[in-house]
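Re: the request from the purification team.
They wanted to know what the chain is likely to look like in 3D before they choose a buffer screen. I agreed to run a prediction and write the result into the notebook, where they can find it.
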Amino acid sequence: MNRIIKIGMDVHSTNYTLCAMEPTIGAEDRVFGEIQVAPDYKEILLFIESLKMKLGFLDDYSIECGYEAGCLGYTLYHQLTNAGIKCVILAPTTMLSTKGKRIKTDKRDAHLIAQCLCYGGYHPVYIPTKEDDAVKEYIRMRDDHKQMLKSLKQQINAFVLRHGHQYSGTKWTIKHIIWLRTLELDPMYRETLDEYMASHEEQEAKIERYDKRIEEIAAEERYQESARKLGCFLGISTHTALSLIVETGDFIRFAKGNIYAAYLGLTPGEHSSSTSVNRLGLSKAGNTHLRCLLVEAARSICKGAVGHKSKRLRARQIGQSAEVIAYADKANTRLRSKYYRMIRHGKAKNVAVAAVARELACFIWGMMSGNISTVSGADTSVPAVSQG
């Protein structure tokens, strides 16, 4: 009879904690070994070999390893897979948990991961191709620099304010930058502000260069068609489209659009009991980066007149089939109408934006999975999203 051994791994940059377990039905879990080793996949291979010798395995066994998604990314997965060991990465938000536990140790975490592997209490993380992962890292690097630029702007505004100067108009326009460069300050203060402004100019040049590179990547054959289709939606630029493609990977793995929205953490939580129904804010489970991008896209959708198409949107739709354009236009009109309808009924703006982002995710799933003859799983009875 083929025996199945599951190895739960609690992995950190400093050590790996391993727990080998055999699933049993109606009996206590059989733990064959627990050990803490150096953070090297070869140590895991040595542990597996020692396990084989201890249990006298020949060919009647199979071994599967698993670890929780975290700081190691996909590195350990690829190392073990290349060594011929089956491995999965567990999505943290889908794992079984021990309610009321007050003691947390690496040993207990490894044991819990092994139990999840034995009894199916988890969903595996999607493993992207190396090409997609490389593009994803590049885009996230660009976004990190964008965040640095935002922080730098805040530092400049605070510096100027500390020394008695405040700009009355819209900040970070050409007029504002000219005002900053011509501001009368003491020599040392002037030198400090000039250094700030030099860093600001350098950071903007970097981001411009990164954006051009992202445009080039999106124009490559393997991404071009999908990126141009997504560009037919309001609020989705090349940057957002490419992020959706490389981080989602295979859209068909989601059975419905609302499942994809849940994967992005755009569905509301709920804490109900008996006749008491309590809606919570967004679950915020899953891919944080894509969720933030779709909320930003939703904010741009929630501006302008219903049915209006800008020149930029018309330009992005050039060359697409009539079916794709009709589907995107239907989504754009519906989402913008939804926002204004929710606002009229007293919903807070952030709640309405979150609802639009959720339904936009459904439309995106429909476009990328080929289900564009329907409303892509975005049913009309979308539950209200509480602010939070």
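For the purification team: The longest strand covers residues 3-11.
Please add any questions underneath this entry.
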